Amino acid sequence: MKPIKVGLLGLGTVGTGVVRIVEGHQEDLQNQAGSSIVIEKVLVQNKTKARAISVPQEKLTEDPWDIIRNPEIDVVVEVMGGIGNTRDYILEALSLGKHVVTANKDLMALHGPEILAKAREHGCDVLYEASVAGGIPILRTLVEGFSSDRITKIMGIVNGTTNYILTKMSQEGASYGDVLKEAQALGYAESDPTSDVEGLDAARKMTILATLGFRTHVSLDTVSTQGISSVTKEDILYAKRLGYELKLLGIAERQDDSISISVQPTMVKSTHPIASVNGVFNAVYVYGEAVGETMFYGAGAGELPTATSIVADLVAVVKNIKLGVGGKKNALTYNETRQKTDEEISSKYFLLLHVADRAGVLAQITQVFAAFEVSLQSVLQQPNPNNPEAEIIIITHDANKAAVAKVLETFHKLDVVHTVKSVYRVEG
Amino acid sequence: MKPIKVGLLGLGTVGTGVVRIVEGHQEDLQNQAGSSIVIEKVLVQNKTKARAISVPQEKLTEDPWDIIRNPEIDVVVEVMGGIGNTRDYILEALSLGKHVVTANKDLMALHGPEILAKAREHGCDVLYEASVAGGIPILRTLVEGFSSDRITKIMGIVNGTTNYILTKMSQEGASYGDVLKEAQALGYAESDPTSDVEGLDAARKMTILATLGFRTHVSLDTVSTQGISSVTKEDILYAKRLGYELKLLGIAERQDDSISISVQPTMVKSTHPIASVNGVFNAVYVYGEAVGETMFYGAGAGELPTATSIVADLVAVVKNIKLGVGGKKNALTYNETRQKTDEEISSKYFLLLHVADRAGVLAQITQVFAAFEVSLQSVLQQPNPNNPEAEIIIITHDANKAAVAKVLETFHKLDVVHTVKSVYRVEG
C-alpha cells in the first residue's frame, strides 16, 4: 500500500506536536491505519526560522498553494488558525478531492456547514476532533458513541484559561485581575485575553458540540455569552459557603425540537462531577435520555494532547481512504430545531443583593419574585459587613430566564434595592 | 435501502432496553445508520411469560437456531450471557456471515481472539462496547480516539456493585457485611456475589480494556485479582484520615513491551479524579504518553445505559454493511508483549501492622524495609486503642511487588509483629 501523504498547514505548537507524533509513532500508526503516513510538505511563515524540531528544508514551503494544489498530497492538516484565508485554502483543498483534518474551532463554528457541504460534494472527509477540548475525544463520542441516544444536555468546561483563573481564585482567594496577570505571565492567557475571558472561545466550542450532539444546525450568533471578567472573589466565597463552585460553563439544552445554548459563569453544586474539574483541564458532561449522566475529562489544550486528536483523525481518514469510503461518514445534522425563547429557558439562579436595612424590605423583595412567579429555594439575610445595609442571598427554584429578567428590572427601580451585586445561573 | 434485520438473543433487562431504544428512536436511528433497523426475532426461554414490553408473539422463539441459521437476519445481538452455548451460537452466526454485537464480557475476555479470528475469516464485524462500563463508550475511545497515542496506564472502576459497597462503607462507616446485605436487598448485588466482590468481573473487563488499549493479546489468567470481602471499615477510616479513598481498581500498565494487569482494593489519593467516582457509577482513567491524563465517567450497568452502547454498536455495524466494509474495521492486537515479573511491578503500598509496644520495635521493622530496599514515605506509630500493643501505619515510596512480598514474609516470622492487619496498593 502506498504511503498516505499529508500537507501540514502551520508549524506552531500544535503543528510541532503533529510532526512529533507522526514521526515518533510511525510503526504504531502504520499498524493502525494500514499505510505509512508521511508528512510531505509543511507551510511555515519563514523557512529559515529556528525551530523546536528539525524538518528537512525541502519539505518546508511559504506558499500555501504548494500544498493545497499539490497533486501528491492526499490529506491536508490545518493547524494555522484564522478564518479568512484558511477557509479559502480548505474549500479549495476539498474541491480538489483532498481530505481535511482541522483543529480550527473558529472556522468550524462559523463556516462548518459550508465546509461540510463542499466535502460531501467532493467525497472528502472533514474531521475536527481537536477543535473542542483538545485531547478529549468528545466529538466522536457524540457522533458514534451516542448515535443511539437522544442527548438532551451538554455542559462543558471547554476553556482552560478561564478554568485556570477561576480555580486559582477559588483555591487562593485571589482577585480576577491578579490571577489573570499571573496566567499571562505563565502563558496560560494571551496578552489580549478577550476571546477567552469573555466566553467567545467557549461559545464557538459549544456551537460545535451542540451541532453534533443534537444533530442539528446551530448558529454561533444564537449562543448567549457572558464571560468571567466581572466575577469577584466575594462571589466565589459565597458560592463555596453555599456548597457550590463557580465555573465558566457552556450549557446546551434540547427539549424536543427546541434548543438553547449559552456560556456563563455558573454556580455548580460541589458534588456534581464537573465541579471538581480544576486548573487548565477541560471536561464535557453529557446527559442522554437513555445513557443518563456521563462525563469526559482531559487536557483541553497543549502541543501533544491536541496533536493526539489530530493524528487520531488522520488515522481515521487513512482507514477511510483505504476502504474507499472517504466522505461517506461525515456527521449529519438532520434535526429541524428552533431556538428557545427566554420564557422557555429554565434554571435555578443565585442572586446577591445589597438592600436597605429596615423593616419590610425582605417582604417587598420576595413579593417581586412572587409577582413574576419565581419561587425561592433559599433566602439568607445578613448585615453587610462594609455598609449600613443588609445583604440578601437568594437561590431560586427553576425559573424562566424572562421572569428573572423582569425581577431584575423591577429591582433596578426599587429604592430599597441599593445594588444587584451578582446574578448567576445555578446547576446541579 | 432495505431494512437491516436483527436477531436478539435474550430478552432480560438489557434485551428489553435494546428493544425499547430500537423502537423508540427508530427515526433517529434511520437518520444515523441510513437504514431502518428491525428486530426480526427474539430468543426467549419461555414464549408465554409476561414481560415488561410487548413483543409480537410471532417474533419470539425458544430455539436459538431460528435466529443463528435464519437467512433473513443480518446482525445477531447477544445479551443472554454465559459462555458455553453462547460461544457456539456466535461462532456459527459469524461463519454464516452474520455480524455480531455482544455485551458479553465473560465471552470476550475468555474467547475474544477465537471470535475475532472467525469474524475476520468471514468478513464480519464483532462489536462489544457494552461489555465494559455499560454506557461509557470507552472501547471505541481506546480504539479510535487514542489510535494515535501510546497508552501506558488504564485504571478502572468497572464494577458498580463493589463501588456501591465501598462508597456506602466510606460515607456511613458501615461494615462490609451490612452493606452487602443492603445491596442484595436493593438488587445491586446478586445472591451469590462472588464474581463481583472477589474482583472476577472486574478482571474480565480489565482484560478487554488492556487488550484494546495496549493492542496486544492479554490472557485473563495473567490478571492478578483480589476482591473487597476482607476490607474493614477501619481500613476505610485510616484511608480517609490519610487523604485517600479505598476503591476496587483495575490497573493495567504498560512499559515498552511488558505489561501487568491487576484488580485489587487500592487507596487512591482523594484529589485524583477517580477517587470521587461514587455509588454504582463506573469510570475509566486512561493515561497516554501524548494525551496525558483523561477520564471517562458514566453508568456502568442498567437497562438503558447498557442498551445505549449496544445500539450504538448496531448503528456502526449497519453503516459498515451499507458501505460494504463489514469486518474491515475490527480492532487489531499486533503488539508483542510479555507479562511483567513481580520484580518489575512497582507502586506505593499502605501497611497497617499491630506490633509489640516496646522499645526498639520500630527500628526492627524499618530495618526489614531497608533490607529489601523498600523506602518509606511516611510512618506513624500510635497505641492500638483495643490492645496493649502499638499500631504502625506505613506508606512506602514506589516499591516492587516482589520486595514488598519479602518484607511481609519476614514480618510473619518476627515475634514483635503480632498481625499484618492490612496491605493495600496506593495510587495518586
UniProtKB/TrEMBL annotation, chains A, B:
Transmembrane segments: none
Reaction it catalyzes: L-homoserine + NADP(+) = L-aspartate 4-semialdehyde + NADPH + H(+)
Domain ACT: 350-425
Binding site for NADPH: K105
Single GO molecular function: metal ion binding
Origin: domain of life: Bacteria
Pathway terms, separated by semicolons: Amino-acid biosynthesis; L-threonine biosynthesis; L-threonine from L-aspartate: step 3/5; Amino-acid biosynthesis; L-methionine biosynthesis via de novo pathway; L-homoserine from L-aspartate: step 3/3
A GO biological-process term: methionine biosynthetic process
Active site: K205 (proton donor)
Signal sequence, start to end: none
Keywords noted in UniProt: Amino-acid biosynthesis, Metal-binding, Methionine biosynthesis, NAD, NADP, Oxidoreductase, Sodium, Threonine biosynthesis
EC numbers for this chain: 1.1.1.3
NADP keyword on record: yes
Binding, L-homoserine: E190
SUPFAM superfamilies in the cross-refs: ACT-like, Glyceraldehyde-3-phosphate dehydrogenase-like, C-terminal domain, NAD(P)-binding Rossmann-fold domains
Residues given in the record as NADP(+) binding sites: L9, G10, L11, G12, T13, V14, G15, T16
EC class of the enzyme, as a word: oxidoreductase
InterPro entries: ACT-like_dom_sf, ACT_dom, Asp/hSer_DH_NAD-bd, HDH, HDH_cat, HDH_CS, NAD(P)-bd_dom_sf
One Pfam match: Homoserine_dh
Cofactors named for this entry: a metal cation
Protein family membership: Belongs to the homoserine dehydrogenase family.
Protein name: Homoserine dehydrogenase
Organism: Paenibacillus oryzae
Lineage of origin: Bacteria, Bacillati, Bacillota, Bacilli, Bacillales
